[in-house]
Amino acid sequence: MKSKLMLFLKGFGMGAADVVPGVSGGTIAFITGIYEELLNSIKSVDVTAFKLFFSGKFKLFWQHINGTFLLVLFGGIGVALFSLAKLIIYLLENHPVQIWSFFFGLIIASALLMIKTVKTWNSSAMVALIAGGLIAYFITGITSVADENASLYYIFLCGMIAICAMILPGISGSFILLLLGSYELVLRTVKSAGEAAISANLQGMLDVLPIILVFAGGCIVGLAAFSRVLSWLFQHYHDLLVALLIGFLFGSLNRVWPWKESVQALTDKHNIEVNISPFRATELYGDNYLLAAISLCIVGLLSVLCTEWLAKKLSSLDVG
């Protein structure tokens, strides 16, 4: 039960990270030591698994797909998504500096921990690190221009693309949804579903069910396909892939930089947010603005280090 509770909490952490643009649930999976098992478990949902299921060999099917692991982990992810959607919306709207600062520290600590998992730092690994940083910096610097599209086929496509990013450390699936113009739609839908479930509002649940099912279907298809590619890369190019993912983490800091200023674009005159220096932020908003950001950045960094320490402690207890 202790190991299942820890796995559930790791899933909860992944779900909490996936709600926020700029933070990846894959990062949480990586630093808590379940990333490769997650990929292998998802990959095991294959032709053999379907043959076992449809032939009535349910116990062998469950063992083949590592069913208990997936059920507990995705249970934690689901609880986090439905319970935290409303809170994240509130924090992003009312306390953006604080929440972005917290996740800025979290990502830095995650990248530093991942550096230790690269066995050999050679020129190829360094090139992969720099390439990952540049790719993530470019992606996170793109301003979303897509209008919200509620058509079901588009939502399915968004699910396929976003889930691929969600299982990559450093690339946020929520941010990909933001670029595709579907982030607020999906978040509102999840929030509405949670509220309807709590109030036992059957009609409210039925209203959002099509979007949830179609988005989940896209996620399942994307996950089944992409996990096999990732698993193969981990087996054959472990150090290069990890170095690339570390680069993704450092590059994604561009998106969660806490100090921003709203300016008017020269082309179409709409307001966009640009990163500014901490000193410029102090001039605009006062010393408390900077102090809060730095403090929560440190809290985020320490929370990751404490999570790793706790995971190692519990792992040693299990072994003992």
From TrEMBL:
TM regions (residue ranges): 69-91, 97-115, 127-146, 152-180, 208-234, 240-257, 289-311
Pfam family, one: VCA0040-like
UniProt keyword terms in alphabetical order: Membrane, Transmembrane, Transmembrane helix
InterPro entries hit by this protein: VCA0040-like
Coiled-coil intervals: none
Top-level taxon of origin: Bacteria
Name of protein: DUF368 domain-containing protein
